[in-house]
């Protein structure tokens, strides 16, 4: 298994390089000038110096090479310096001072390093998206298991109807609908997510949880709908297998048959859906974060697209590509852990 993981990580490097090259070249075709918002009173020679400082105006291959150096060489040095200087975990180590004021990936919109902005936004996205995904999985798995075990029952038919509705309704409709019902009409939850809120006591924690409920409900609804259907279908395939009849004939209790034998084999295809949905749930958060004004990664990407901030768009899309490749690897590794018959070495 270790050999397989290392081999896949090595193969992921050229894959990510190819993806980054394609994304970069596609963005080069998009219209956009970092000097478009500079006042007309600024002299042309000053604009040209500013353009050169941002790395614009050079051949595309040169710009791409500089981006690779900045992302894979300069940004890791900045991160290592942060770990040894400011982080709580490794702050006791001697300061490495690897970063020597080299040019980093600069946002055209804010004129600040892109990765600094991304790191500031990640906690807000993880609060909402991470919680929604965990809640969706915890709800979906029991629903799918029980629906398959009680096939065609009232619970199964009701669950099928509700999950189909949840899977069919897009977040840009569900979000405003929940805002109108629970914020405007009932006044139970805030409609706008306050990203400046700090949790330092019980009252602030209650407010944080209350403002997370609506965006988490929107994202968890689609997650629950999709995963529960996959879980139900996988359970039905295994409940009719010969090994299940053999286990029951041996006198094993129904709980042991379902939870130990059937559930473990049924989780193999579901793991793929769960792992590969992690990057896609970030994509779904793009809409949800804009509806509830969550200053996360999704809202940052939309803002960068409207502002023609190509360095920011390039970096965020590459991060999504890394997540897809990484969670593909995680899914393959979990296959071997769930099914002893699967061996990669």
TrEMBL record:
* Keyword field: Cell membrane, Membrane, Transmembrane, Transmembrane helix, Transport
| UniProt record, GO biological process | transmembrane transport
The ABC transmembrane type-1 domain extends over 122-331
PROSITE patterns linked to this entry? ABC_TM1
Q: Name one GO cellular component term.
A: plasma membrane
Top-level taxon in the UniProt lineage:
Bacteria
Q: Which InterPro entries match?
A: BPD_transp_1_N, MetI-like, MetI-like_sf
**Where located?**
Cell membrane
From the UniProt annotation, give the residues forming the signal peptide. none
Q: What is this protein called?
A: ABC transporter permease
The species this protein belongs to is: Marivita cryptomonadis
């Amino acid at each position: 298994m270790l050999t397989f993981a290392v081999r896949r990580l090595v193969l992921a490097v050229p894959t990510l390089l190819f993806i980054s090259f394609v994304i970069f070249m596609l963005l080069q075709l998009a219209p956009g000038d970092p000097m478009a918002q500079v006042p007309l009173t600024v002299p042309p020679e000053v604009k040209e110096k500013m353009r050169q400082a941002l790395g614009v105006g050079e051949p595309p291959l040169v710009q791409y090479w500089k981006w690779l150096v900045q992302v894979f060489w300069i940004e890791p040095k900045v991160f290592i310096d942060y770990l040894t200087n400011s982080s709580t975990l490794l702050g006791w180590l001697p300061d490495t001072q690897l970063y020597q004021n080299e040019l980093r990936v600069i946002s055209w919109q804010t004129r600040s390093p892109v990765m600094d902005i991304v790191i500031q936004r990640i906690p807000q996205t993880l609060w909402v998206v991470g919680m929604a995904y965990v809640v969706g999985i915890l709800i979906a798995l029991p629903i799918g298991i029980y629906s398959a075990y009680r096939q065609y029952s009232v619970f199964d038919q009701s669950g099928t109807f509700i999950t189909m509705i949840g899977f069919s309704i897009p977040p840009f409709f569900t979000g405003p609908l929940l805002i109108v019902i629970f914020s405007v009409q009932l006044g139970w939850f805030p409609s706008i997510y306050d990203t400046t809120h700090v949790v330092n006591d019980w009252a602030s924690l209650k407010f944080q949880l209350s403002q997370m409920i609506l965006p988490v409900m929107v994202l968890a609804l689609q997650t629950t709908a999709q995963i529960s259907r996959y879980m139900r279908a996988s359970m039905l395939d295994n409940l009719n297998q010969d090994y299940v009849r053999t286990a029951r004939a041996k006198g094993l209790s129904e709980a042991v048959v379902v939870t130990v034998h059937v559930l473990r084999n049924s989780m193999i295809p579901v793991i793929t859906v769960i792992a590969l949905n992690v990057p896609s749930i970030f994509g779904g958060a793009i809409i949800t974060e804009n509806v509830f004004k969550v200053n996360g990664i999704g809202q940052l990407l939309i803002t960068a697209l409207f502002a023609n901030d190509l360095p920011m768009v390039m970096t965020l899309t590459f991060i999504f590509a890394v997540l897809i490749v990484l969670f593909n690897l995680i899914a393959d590794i979990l296959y071997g852990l769930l099914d002893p018959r699967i061996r990669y070495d």
